[in-house]
Amino acid sequence: MDYNFHWEKMFHGEPAQWMWEGLATTMQISAIALVCSMVLGTIICIMRMTPFKPLQWFSLAYTEFFRNTPLLVQIFFWYNASHYVIPAGINEWMNDLYVQFPGPFSLFGYDFIGEWVLFNVEFITGTIALTVYTSAFIAEEIRAGIFSIPKNQLEASRAVGLSFLQGYRYVILPQALRIVIPPLISQALNLIKNSSLCMVIGVTEMMYMASQIESYYAIPFEAFSVALLIYMTISLIISFCINMYNKHFMIQVMY
Amino acid sequence: MKRLVVVLALVLSFMFAATVASAGKIEDVKKAGVLVCGVKDSVNLFGFIDADSKELVGFDVDICKALAAKLGVKTEFKVVTSKNRIPMLAQGSVDILAATMTHKFSRDEQIDFSITYFMDGQKLLVKKGSGIMSTDDLANKKVGTVKGSTSEKNIKNAQPKAQVISYDEYPQAFMALKQGKVKAVTTDSGILAGLKSGDDNPDNWEVVGEFFSSEPYGLGVPSNDSAFRDFVNKSLNEMWLDGTYQSLFKKWMGYDLPAGWQIELWPM
């Protein structure tokens, strides 16, 4: 029984470069998916609140479907279904898409990034799957926030003369979103951790890089513990920032 | 203080028991009555599930059965992938690995290998009529391969401009080729021939290119156990000399062993 740890292998040369590229891709996919899912989640939630029945049913079906299926299944669905659902021309373009970060990037002799793929079909389908999955959860949370606003706010906005959409844009949503920030932050943290599932379709993010280091250099424990620490650091930084924001700006909703 | 002494004594006794218990692999296998082999289950011709009998069959599987017969024990098969086969052997979950594994010096750091029992090389599997004839045509195109295999590194060396995507196992890489997400799949030519023949329309695919790397397969055995490795090498030699190896090769590959290659034969 000999466990020889080779921590020095992780911090120089190719493994270090791969981990930086993986971190960059994780942040990229999380940022894009987060922004898109916030927007999409708000739209789905508004659709749920309209008095127009078909839109309500569509929104209900959307949330129930994408909340109740596992994310891994959804990722595979989007990756494989793109071949059958998207028209052939767009499919060809998407399959050949390969946008790379221009040139290697090194600072003070330490190589940060060698080859960093910015956009390819795996990245696009992974982002779509993450966006759709998280937007279903966000829609439900915003809906809970909207219900916590007293109904007379909406009635007052109608009485003043604002239409349905204007009422939501200027009166309801600003109040609801402030209340619902803590659950939204936990959804954001979930999103960052769920992005690690995209490794199964070949998105070169941090977990993919860690398992590539495991297969090339045979240092699984070191690779995966570095990935673990990086995920924990990212999550802790985001939580800390939001706690600061809460302390300064959200005095009125804190007990 | 007394409890500390008792605990220390127990811990030390476990340590000594652990070192004593790791006797030779041959004795362990004979005592257990079963040889646990790590094999692939989705590589056509080498280790795969037969469609009719639903059993694990293949060239690697038959080699394991022959070795177990020489030891006089039964066989038990555990499915491995290219990524986890070496850790599984190093931890002791399997006794021997027959999983289309190339013998590399860098892998010798963790496990030992038998003599080469199958000689192969790396080629490309492409759609017929795609115009790709060799690795030169793969510049700026996507190539599929499998995580943890030697094919990953070799294709990057042969064509640095190719975009390599690594999948979990060969069927996923082949599916990506069918969907057009990669333009070629690269791995050992035996595995490619298996993928092509296992498909519904084998004529749509062709194996092209020259060998751009050589892949000598070796059976994986645990480190620092010369008795077991010597036994495996001797059994392979015996299988070659009495014709078992040649008949197994013909049974699975469908053609006779190419003249000019033989496994490393040593006098008895």
Q: List the domain count of chain B as a whole number.
A: 2
Overall spatial form of chain A? globular
How far is it from the N-terminal to the C-terminal residue of chain B, by CA? 60 Å
Number of helices of chain B: 10
Strand content of chain B: 15-25%
Give the neighbour order of strands across the main sheet of chain A.
1-4
Low-confidence stretches of chain A: none
| Named CATH topology of chain A | MetI-like fold
> Radius of gyration of chain A, rounded?
22 Å
SSE string of chain A: HHHHHEEEEHHHHHH
Number of strands of chain A: 4
Beta-strand content bin of chain A: under 5%
Largest sheet entry of chain A: 2 strands, antiparallel
First-residue to last-residue Cα separation of chain A:
55 Å
Classify the fold: give the CATH topology of the largest domain in chain B: D-Maltodextrin-Binding Protein, domain 2
CATH architecture call of the largest domain in chain B: 3-Layer(aba) Sandwich
Low-confidence stretches of chain B: none
Structural category of chain B is: alpha/beta
What is the element string of chain B, with H for helices and E for strands? Answer: HHEEEEHEHEHEEHEHEHEEHH
